[in-house]
Specification:
By secondary structure, this protein is α/β, with parallel strands linked by helices. The protein has helices at residues 58-70, 90-107, 126-143, 153-158, 162-175, 202-215, 230-237, 254-259, 273-288, 292-299, 303-309, 317-327, 346-358, 365-380, and strands at 2-5, 11-14, 34-37, 74-77, 111-115, 146-149, 180-185, 220-226, 245-248, 267-270. Strand 1 and strand 2 form a beta hairpin.
């Protein structure tokens, strides 16, 4: 039994499960393309401050990517889950891309890497934004990884309307050597991206987005939509040109979106699949057999944990993701780059532990309980 703090005050007794969920199978996934955005593991002994460049434990960071590949998932690297713009600067992200892409080649893992403009540290004009995107695109393509064109805070600040987005993205797509993934990240993940694609009206922004894709269908492998609006995603994916995939980034509605309907389905590029990797892979393998009900039976119960982790303010979901990686034994500490381990309350973290334990996500439940006890003792004085 462990005593867990509650959001309204006080503590509650919880009895952890005795054994993990049964492990799923191995091998590639067939019916869906599935990426897990992956977190970075900080070096806990580096003498840093929240404003310092990130100090990364490269061995543990790469080992976690091997864990994801071992379950058949692709890795979406250097995305917002890796704390791009929230502790990990471009120099750190560039090194992460190089190392992870080399590891992917070594083990035969699928990888896509984020391309942004975060080397810009001051307000920039359209030409500077273009140059920053070009620099990052060149690096990612040099490694052999697929590029994900991420939403840019600098572009959101510099653009005067939809035409600026169409011009810049059109230039990048013409320049790209291979089809890319376009990423529409909503303001709940990053408030600086409000009004992306030139309008705060999502219907208007959607038309601009679709105009871009229609003009360059041969250069767009797919789109990742992170708006947490299942109806909008379904409507958008039904309007995509043939051959352009929709990768759901909806951490609230992913089971129904991946399962799909009579008119299609979404693939996946999700931050929540970082902690859910074993269950996510098992669910998709079940779907590969045509068993949609079995797929939903595995994945639907995970939504409560995902909604908790991604609760407002959504951008701090990374804290719960790293907590669960520590509790599951994938790293030896609960320290994050930029000091982000302090971004969620102790009751929030306690609930994340309880929900994850209930799903059987911890390979060693006793280790997870012991580590949670140590966190509660240090941060909350609970014994």
């Amino acid at each position: 039994m462990i005593r867990l703090p509650q959001p309204g005050g006080g503590v509650r007794e919880y009895v952890p499960r005795a054994a993990p969920a049964a492990p799923g199978g191995v091998g590639p996934l067939a019916s869906r393309t599935v990426f897990s955005a992956a977190h970075v593991v900080a070096d806990p002994f580096a003498d840093t401050t929240p404003d310092s460049p990130a100090a990364v434990d490269w061995d543990a960071t790469l080992a976690f990517r091997r864990h994801l590949w071992s379950h058949g998932l692709g890795v979406a690297e250097a995305m917002d889950t890796a704390q791009r713009g929230m502790g990990l600067d471009w120099a750190g992200a560039a090194e992460l891309v190089r190392r992870s892409a080399a590891e992917a080649r070594a083990v035969g893992g699928r990888i896509a890497c984020g391309v942004g403009t975060d080397q810009l540290t001051a307000p920039a004009g359209p030409a500077e934004v273009r140059g920053a995107y070009e620099e990052q695109l060149a690096l990612v393509e040099e490694t052999g990884a697929q590029a994900v064109l991420m939403a840019s805070r600098a572009l959101a600040a510099a653009a005067s309307g939809p035409e600026d987005y169409l011009d810049l993205y059109g230039h990048l797509l013409r320049q790209a050597g291979e089809p890319v993934i376009l990423h529409w990240l909503g303001p709940m993940f990053d408030p600086a991206l409000d009004g992306y694609w030139g309008s705060t009206d999502l219907d208007v922004a959607t038309e601009t987005f679709l105009e871009l894709i229609a003009a360059h269908p041969d250069k767009v492998d797919g789109i990742k939509v992170s708006l947490l609006d299942a109806g909008r995603e379904v409507a958008l994916r039904r309007r995509l040109p043939e051959g352009v995939r929709c990768y759901t980034g909806d951490d609230f509605h992913y089971p129904e979106l991946i399962a799909g309907d009579e008119q299609g389905f979404s693939h996946a590029l999700l931050g929540v699949f970082d902690p859910l990797a074993p269950l996510a892979a098992e669910a998709v393998r079940t779907l590969d057999t045509g068993d949609t009900a079995g797929f939903r039976a595995i994945l639907d119960p995970t939504v409560a944990l995902s909604r908790h982790l991604f609760g407002a303010p959504t951008r701090f979901y990374k804290t719960g993701v790293v907590l669960l990686a520590w509790l599951a034994g994938h790293q030896e500490h609960f320290t994050m780059v930029g000091g982000l381990h302090s971004a969620r309350s102790l009751p929030h973290l306690a609930r994340a532990y309880e929900l994850a334990d209930g799903l059987g996500l911890f390979p060693d439940p006793e280790l997870a309980e012991a580590r949670m006890r140590s966190l509660l003792a240090v941060q909350g004085g609970l014994r």
